[in-house]
Every structure is written in structure tokens, then in C-alpha cells.
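job 3f2a | input accepted
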Amino acid sequence: MPGDDWQKFANLRCLLSYQWFFPGKNLLFMGGEFGQGPEWNENTALPWNQIQEHEGHQGVQSMIAKINRVYRENPAMWEGDYQTWGFEWIDTNDHDNSVLSFIRKTEDSGNCILVVLNLTPQVLRHYRIGVPGGTFWAEIFNSDTRRFGGSGVGNPGLVKTEMIKSHGKAQSVDLTLPPLSVSAFKLNS
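job 3f2a | predicted structure (189 res):
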């Protein structure tokens, strides 16, 4: 994987987060829960000592624990895994910024989660995303938080919906997208 240690761990957190938020069931191979360094070898034990020796491994382990809680607590993450109503792309065409966005939702749309991926090492400020409604969205997950080994860039508190058309939606939100990250927002109203 290219980049320095920070970029490698950020890319790993981004990949694992994308895997959890995208429809379908999740599977981690042994050692994936802390981002083991060496290739898995059935003849040796997992290098658990890496967790104490490098904060990047601690960050991946903390992130997996958090994303599992988000998964458990939000029916939109699993209820419509194999149904067309459970997933909606917002934007797959922003090649210039390398940003993907989609919505996970329950059948009644009562539990709705906006997921945004920034696949570049730059912070993107004032990035507008169309949303299906609501007044406020709360950031419930950010793979770039300091606790996970990230830079701590994000959208604390609530993000207010504005009546500005974007991505075929009547309303949108103005977000700050952390570098090499996945951010998730839950409809809060």
C-alpha cells in the first residue's frame, strides 16, 4: 500500500469502514481487526504485540469496535441489505474529488444514514451533498477521528439541512470531508 504509515492506516480504516457501510455481510480475516502488519501465517501466532507497540493498530482496533456498535444500533445498516429500498447512491461521478456518497435506510425510511467517502489525502471543505430531507444530520461515525489514529477533521454536532438543490435532491448539507476517510451521518429529525 502506498504512502507513509499514517496514509496506510487511513486507507485501511477507509476500506474497512466502506466494507461495513456498504450492503452485504461483513467478514474480517484473523488479524484484520487490528491491521496486522505481516501476512497471515498458519504456523505462527497473530502479532498481538503490535497493538501496544503502534498507535495505528490501536486505532484500527478502536474503529472496528465503534463501527460494530454503529452497525448494531442502526437498522438501516442491515435491514435492507438485499433489498433495493435499503440502498441509494447519491453520487458516484465525482471523479475530480474522488468522493462517493450513498444512503442506507430502513423500509419506512425512518432510520436513514448518509455515508460519504473522501478517497483523497486532502481535506475537502464546504462539500455539498444532496439529502432526502430532514432538518439536521448528526455525524455518527468518522474514520478520521483522533481516537482511531486520524487527524481529527470532521463535522462535530449537528449539520443543518439547507434548501439548496444538489444531486437531484431538493435539500442538501454542507460538509467537511476528512482525508482518506468515511463519514456517516444519521438523520436526526
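job 3f2a | The radius of gyration is 17 Å.
job 3f2a | closed
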